[in-house]
Structure prediction request, 317 residues.
Amino acid sequence: MARSVLVSGGCGFLGSHLVDRLLRRDDVEKLVVVDNLWTGTKDNTAHIVDPRFSLQIVDAESFSASDRFDEIIHLASPASPVWYMREPTRTIRANIGGALNLLSLLRPGGRFCFTSTSEVYGDPLVSPQPENYRGSVDCTGPRSSYDESKRCTEALLFEQQRVGDLDVRVVRLFNTYGPRTRIDDGRAVSNFVSQALTTGILTVYGDGSQSRSWGYVDDIVEGLERFFWRDSISHRGPLNIGNNHEVSVLETARFISSLVPGSRIEHHPPTPQDPTNRCPDLTMARRVLPGWEARTGYQDGIARTLEWFRRQIASKQ
Prediction:
């Protein structure tokens, strides 16, 4: 049966990769991307020539359409603290307002997919973090516009599922990196890579002992594809998707510096409420998506990402 699909944030880093996967489907008759180009860029979808694809440059919370959609995937939100801490109201509006508006455009019985975040666990007191961990979140802190709007949107979707005819899929994404990230994205891997290739000075906040679990984009999108539409499963989430191999921020910076001769590391004061660790408990993911795992080692993935950044920087000179 022909399907009509909407992706909010489809010009973003992760969204554009997901759009590529959706266009491999024979049953997709129409694919509408809604993006205000706040953190996304047209360059990420410039390669698409498929007639089924259309781009609407508009906020997810104000987009309107005469037709309804069989599937909606809501990714419209900045994911980097640099961006969401700068415009907290806009971040909250994108997540919650976007979800409320897009729900009105879903056909009865349609599927609504949402990319939530490991940030809902806050600065976790347990590691790795399972889906039933309620988190250690400061709901009035400097990261709360992102954390809490993601948590609230999760609540909205699962409550709407409880009282209405809604098929939801909610993932909690852990740190993801790879090609199509903005050069000025501001998150650790992209920041270190762009700094190494430009100023040569990699900025580590604090002592760098805080750990992250870096998931290469191809692996993460494979998990999203399987959970959002490809596998026939009943589980609706929340579901952790990420790499469960922890690496310290300092070790990551040192590795990236080793790839760019002449670059060096500088330590700056720690950023407010920077989580000490991030590591997904993937027990549920292994049960729901048998055989899936983040297979790309962080060194291999970073090397690929660095070469992509190198080409991007060269093309703009």
